[in-house]
Design a protein that fits this description.
homodimer; 11 strands; 3-stranded antiparallel sheet; Molybdenum Cofactor Biosythetic Enzyme, Chain A; alpha/beta; Alpha-Beta Plaits
């Protein structure tokens, strides 16, 4: 069994529709590649109680929880404090995080109080390197806290993943058929029954007036996947 | 207070990273326009128990729950049955839904067993019109069940929304400043304190090597929003 994971996206801007999230999709792909089984994504607003509740629920259920958003310098960046509260630990400006910021903000006065907020790290957390804009993320227990800005989030993901325990990568094959989904539904159901260890899905599309379906099979077992692929190819 | 809502996205293809969801963002924008307050989004896999649990949790907390995905003709389309189970009601092929499909699939044999799955409607539900591909969605209590294919989802949303109780539309103003987020953090915090009924967020960006920030204020109160906007403009 592969380790499990959930993603928690924190941000009013996603719930208001202003921002189309892409961090969830990016991390979902990277987790599949290293054999971590993403089982849930949640989006909650920038509210202390909501973040605390979601973190505590998810970290009890999944081996890994990845958060995105709310660790910048402004008043609405409340994720670090909420994580500390969820774990019941203290939080303060920490010297290792402060010195990372100090090498970045070198003019006197640049490392102002608001920027120092980004050096507030819960007790017991380890830092996640941020090669883009320096202010670090952190891991506390099984919760990995990263920035919401996509360029920073993706960089932090690459800093973090090598240190995590993965599993067998999830492989997938995709076969495109120019038939409506309901035409392939019956043979696909038979195939799914014959190969219970392979997850088989169908995704209809319309292109230039043609109704077609992408047939997708996913499994950690490459030999089984090959067998299913050859069966899917006969449906074209 | 505006009515609240959650969105439940059902689909392995989102959690595997194969599909970048856009339905959540589309509906989030539409809900803001009609004054329904989106408070949470969840993504769960195509698994009966997970769908039942999420539906029952969310429908107890929010005034409206909107689901996307899993109501097609194939073996992995299990949402309708899961909704019936969540409400503890029966489900079967229903005559009104069957007759909608029959007008679409007019050749003998076209309305096969797999396609008839799309006419399985939980007892007591009302249908949601699907002008794109006919197979209807449905509302049961405060849960509104729609397709995952974006063209169908967006059409169903337009069928559904006029019948829902909205509130005061959420308005927003956005001001772009060419300063890094940490430079505007302090005045922004003061502004947020002075206007507690306006939600004020900041979203950093990097463009052509320039660090900038989008300042966004959101409120249902247009007069307050105007005041905040004029203050935001002075930060440019």
């Amino acid at each position: 069994m592969n380790p499990t994971a959930a993603i928690l996206l924190i941000g009013d801007e996603i719930l208001s529709g202003r921002t189309q999230d892409t961090n969830g999709n990016h991390l979902a792909k990277r987790l599949a590649e290293i054999g971590i089984d993403l089982r849930e994504i949640r989006v909650v607003p920038d509210e202390h109680a909501r973040i605390v509740e979601a973190v505590n629920t998810l970290r009890g259920v999944y081996a890994n929880v990845f958060t995105s958003g709310g660790i910048g310098p402004t008043h609405d960046d409340i994720t670090a404090d909420a994580i500390a509260a969820a774990f019941g630990v203290g939080i303060d400006v920490r010297e290792d995080a402060r010195s990372i910021l100090a090498t970045h903000y070198t003019n006197p006065g640049d490392l102002n109080d608001m920027r120092l907020r980004m050096a507030r790290i819960p007790d017991g957390a380890t830092l996640i390197d941020n090669p883009v804009s320096k202010a670090p993320g952190f891991s506390l227990g099984n919760v990995h806290v990263m920035a919401g800005v996509p360029a920073v989030f993706t960089a932090m993901v690459e800093s973090l993943l090598p240190g995590l325990t993965g599993g067998t990568p999830m492989r997938s094959v995709s076969v495109r058929v120019e038939q409506p989904e309901s035409q392939v539904a019956a043979p696909l159901a038979d195939l799914a029954k014959a190969f219970p260890k392979v997850s088989i899905g169908s995704y209809p599309f319309v292109q230039n007036g043609v109704f077609g379906t992408n047939l997708v099979a996913r499994s950690t077992d490459e030999a089984l996947l090959k067998q299913v692929e050859s069966r899917l190819l006969t449906m074209r």
